[in-house]
Design brief:
249 residues, alpha/beta, Rossmann fold, seven-stranded mixed β-sheet, four-stranded antiparallel β-sheet, disordered N terminus
């Protein structure tokens, strides 16, 4: 199978994982310490980078993703054991047994990739059902409302070697009314020949709607941040929309 039949290798190559995890780690450590987190379910884990980081802190972790290829890569990179397991599962599917985790996370703009609001609400409900009383849910979305309506904002341009070919990976985002699109272009570095061109739609999420969904799922407290430095969420300017929903103790 060619690696270009799925995006696993492209996904791995286009992210500077050490830099990203170093930036986000203090945010998770603070919240996990505040709420006594010892177990985590990562409900859209991709290739498992966040889940593996949590596991390296001594936590019990389950990483789940709807993509078998992503889970295969996570298992190959980080193995599996009593305190780290990988499963193929969509984030809106039941996480059994309910209440067995201290925290659930859904990050990397995964939640907005759901096809509709009903699926997002179902996913939030499933994640909250999976955590104990006093547990928490952390969900991340790209803040669509910071983007101008129309032009593409190119975020990444990376040179990588994939399947023994040197390629250029371009990733951008743009807004069209209340929807966003992730644009991905992969081209051969030497010739410029197009290898892959993807446009993926995602939902523009509002803080008020997310809070309503979280409270319907059993959360008693909901907080929002505009990024991983604990800054308050501001709809017109924040790069991110981070929700922390806490179940009553």
């Amino acid at each position: 199978m060619s690696m270009f039949e799925d995006l696993t290798d492209v996904y791995e190559a286009m992210i500077d994982w050490p830099k990203r995890l170093a930036h986000e780690e203090p945010f998770y450590r603070r919240l996990f310490a505040e709420h006594g987190v010892r177990s985590v379910v990562d409900t859209a884990c991709g290739t498992g980078r966040h889940a593996a980081m949590f596991h390296s802190w001594g936590l019990r972790v389950e990483g789940a993703d709807v993509s078998p290829a992503m889970i295969d890569r996570a298992r190959a990179n980080f193995a599996e054991g009593d305190r780290l397991r990988w499963v193929v599962r969509g984030f809106d599917e039941p996480i059994a047994p309910g209440g067995s985790f201290d925290a659930a996370v859904c990050v990397g703009n995964s939640l907005p990739l759901a096809p509709d609001a009903a699926t997002i609400e179902r996913a939030i409900g499933q994640m909250l059902a999976a955590v104990r009383s006093g547990g928490l849910l952390i969900a991340h979305a790209l803040n669509l409302w910071r983007l101008s309506d129309g032009p593409c904002m190119w975020q990444k341009c990376r040179l990588a070697t994939l399947s023994q070919r040197e390629v250029l990976i371009l990733k951008g985002v743009h807004r069209a009314a209340d929807c966003g699109y992730v644009e991905l272009v992969v081209a051969e570095a030497a010739s410029g020949a197009l290898v892959r061109n993807e446009s993926v739609r995602f939902c523009g999420l509002e803080a008020a709607a997310l809070e309503s969904m979280a409270r319907a799922g059993g959360a008693s407290e909901v907080r929002f941040f505009g990024g991983y430095n604990d800054e308050p969420y501001d709809r017109p300017t924040s790069a991110d929309l981070l929700m922390v929903a806490i179940k009553p103790g």
